[in-house]
Amino acid sequence: MNIKYFLLLLFPVLLFSQHSIRFKVVDENNLPISRAIVIVSQNNNQIRFGTTNENGILVQDISSGQYDCKISKLGFTTLNNTVLVEKEQNFEFILKEEINKLKDVVITSRPKIMRIKEDTISYNLKAVVDGTENKIEDVIKKLPGLDIDQDGKVLYKGQQIDNILVDGNEFFGNKHQMATQNIDADMIEGIDLLTGYTGFAKASGGQKGIALNLKTKDSYKNKWITDLELAAGLNTSFRFHSNSFKFFKKGNVAIISDYNTIAKTPISREDYNEMRIVSEVDSENGEFKAVETPTFLNPNAFIKDKRNAFIGLNYTSLLGKRSKITVSNIFNKTNIAEENARLQTNIGETQSQYSFLENKAATYSLNNSSLKWEFNKSKTTFISYVVGFTPNGDEDNQDLLRSANELQYSKSNTNFSFAHVAKVQSTLLKTINYKFTARHSINDNLQKVDLFSQQNLFDSTHDTINQNQKNQEVNISLNNAFTITKKSNIFSLKINLLSQQSRFNNTVFQDDNNDYAVNLERQSIQTNFSWTKKWHTKVYSILGFTSTAVNSQFQETENAFIRYEPNLSLTYTLSGLNKISFSYALDHQLPALNQVQQTDLVFDFQTFVKPSLVGFNQIIPKNTFSLQYFGVNPKNQSVLFSTLSYDLEQNAVSNNTEYNADFIETTAITTRNRKSIKGLALYDLKFRRLPFSIKTTLFYLKSIGFSQFDSVDNQVEIQNLTNRLQLISNFRKSAVQFGVDYNFTRKTLEQSIADFTNTTQNHQLTLSLRGKNSTKLKWDLGLIMDNQDSGFSRNKTFFLNANIQYVFAKDFKIIFNGNNMLNLNKSQIISTSFNQSFFTESIISIRPGYMMLGINYSL
């Protein structure tokens, strides 16, 4: 094959000719119907839209292919038809007159909460909003099928959605809490869940995602909306928060800032990871790995002291009818103090426990800037470019007292990540949807560890150790996807060229011989073929096959091999929106550089990492089987989603642990199979005549794997059970609403060596009241009873929280915030954690409760 022609197939950015198609719409008497709406779609993506002229005619340019046509006109029955476009053609559609007969209407149920049409779920907020809501997250929590996690992220079917939109425009991308925790509930008149969201692109062939679109009221559009809040009170509590929004037809501008001493952080762990890898674009090859996140992003406020400063800027605007730009910048700086009393159990030894105190002071800062440009070159060609960079620095200083030995432990990280992505979607040969994506990312991490002890460390002759580590990873990928539709079949072919280079340098300054550098490189060509077949109106399947040719180099050693991975999905529609599906996938993973390193490393003050025993070309097969069910009851608008999955991972990477007098040594090894079963059930129960709704979440995980102690096999079994039950009232025309929230968590760890077993349980019951008095007063009150059992100790804590706002003048409110008001002095909680070497119970000193009084100004 001519090489130029081959490259043209892989990387085209071309426009192709289209056919002029004439649609004519008439009635049963063959008279033309004007202003009839004609919608042309393909694969559930709208391709063309228009209305007929006075002669009942609409002319559109359309490429060859099979399309779904929907023709509607008020007073006529909507017509749905399928057409095949092969050349310039004329299509005629006959609409039948709709006969309406008025009947007596008796309302026997409450208003319907949602309306489902194709890939859009529209929520009727009038059926759930009662006026006691503050921010938009208070509304979303009431909507069936949706929930909000503790970070402010919106969940659908138990998973985070992709984007939050405001009037169809992006708003801080997938940092949902910028919208959910800052936009007032009063500003929104409607909410749509878009389950087939393809973004700004008009061209078909893009990957579909899930987005939540917030529709603002007309009174809040095309003007600046500003909200300023200042409050201070007991226990050095202070907060300044400001929101400034402008929502206009072509985009939005948002500026959010916050400074507080009450342990609030506006960004989450997921945000941190996403900012470093530009994850808003579809990552089809899975080569962009998640990174270790700093501890200041813990979602809870259970620390002794935390001061946080934040500012975020988002700008989205149409540059013209076909072009759009989105710019965002986020800066965050945090200072924290932690105080923990820890009981550590060596789980590979019998009756081996150590107690130590930990005092930690840390400073963290990060900055993220990103830019996205999107351009619809034509109706069939879409181009986009995304670039982002995130520098950040973390520094921890700890004082530890373990037995008679006092240690000072300092650890710092300086990170810089840069990533950019270019994407083109177009049409080839009039029938093939084509997408090309080029990605390039760089991650640099410099880590410094300093240890100062009263005793020699790690069986060395040094009581002081200074270690520097430098990690760099460079990823490049070129992805090509071809999709063609033939009647009830969809064929897709993907060709991906991938390159990954990882470098690692380690230096221990007390040892002149310990200056180590290692390099791991992988290049691969990946092809993926999938066939989607609609066998029946109720049955469709997806059959796929992936082959990957990999060339891997580690130091002076090189290896080449091929991986084959099949996958299968089968879906059956029971009735309406009730669906059940089964899927199977085989995935082959390769170890990362940190799992194959070949030198001695200081991991922390008590852990020494030895050279890995895992081969750099070790293939780790993973089989996944899953069964899902999704159903909506149209009578009472209840939603049920459940999933059950089973994973079997062969030749898993694990650890071998060797205990010494004051430290441990760990080595990465390959062990036998690791298997797990996971179940999730979500049920939103609505009552037709009762003013209540019940949300139930049940999660279960059981995992069985292997590790080693002194090279002896150890079976590890982990079980997690979580149950959450929420009862939410929705009294019509009532000034008071209530809620009951019960959470139960049970975690069990069992190990065959030393017969170690632990069960940690937590019962949490939350009683909440919220209410209003006309338009002046709005309040909410919550009592939390938390019962913790670590298996070693028990602790019961009561939290009383309150928020009150009173409008005393136009645009001015007096606000009161109270948190943990029953513990205004020192209080503590119990938590547990474990890895393959230690089980640790921590008694954590948490920030005393506070009460703040302040003022809010809205403009």
TrEMBL record:
Organism for this UniProt entry: Flavobacterium caseinilyticum
Name of the protein described by the UniProt record: TonB-dependent receptor
InterPro entries hit by this protein: CarboxyPept-like_regulatory (IPR008969)
Alphabetic keyword roster: Receptor
Lineage of producing organism: Bacteria, Pseudomonadati, Bacteroidota, Flavobacteriia, Flavobacteriales
Matching SUPFAM superfamilies: Carboxypeptidase regulatory domain-like, Porins
